Structure prediction request, 247 residues.
Amino acid sequence: MAERGGLFDDRPVRRIRADPDAAVDPAVWPASIPAVAQLLRDGLELPHGVTFLVGENGSGKSTIIEAIATAYGMPPEGGSTNGRHVTRPSESPLGGWLQVERSLGVPRWGFFLRAETMHGYYTYLESLGGPDGHLHSLSHGESFNDLLENKLNHPLHVTGFACLDEPEAALSFGSTLKWLAELNDMVQRGTQVLCATHSPVLAALPGAHILELGDWGMRETTWEELEIVTQWRSFLDAPERYFRHLL
Prediction:
């Protein structure tokens, strides 16, 4: 078992790095995305707790989340490491270019919540005829909250590694606050989380590690320095300033 600072390292994922045997053309997508190029060049160490990937559309957040989830062994369309459902393959080749460095003796079960493909995942669960076949009967946000309570943060179910791709897409402000509280609970029980988000509310989780993606690649930052925090504050303070240019 790996050690860190003299203590056993209990992170489900210690590091993600490029497979040295992968045939990668740096000029071709997705390797041409600056954040992906940096991941392939330098690798990425994941700390305990929650790591947020924050950035504009096209910055590589979802591509990286999807690739790390599949490299860990989760289905590219979402679900747990035990699932294998596929409706229409659309994932990038990045997952096949990566290697996941794990710690020994920690839970290997993981869950991937991919906002855009959850409908297919619910259909898959329904076809199994088990207790999760009710998710289609819930609203979008209710179904995400159900997954949070019964898959990601169930007190009798220890999730080793959770990959979340823009979960706020389905959430009201109140539900987003609920996710903040339960993400904190998950971390306290040892779950490691990697989450792509556009939500300044989620990204405000105390103790979270934040990476901002853009033309520069990936860089560590703080919540106060995030561009989305500055933009939301400015808009909510005086939306008319934006309307003069937009409308």
Summary: Residues 49-86+107-246 form a domain with the Rossmann fold fold (CATH 3.40.50.300).
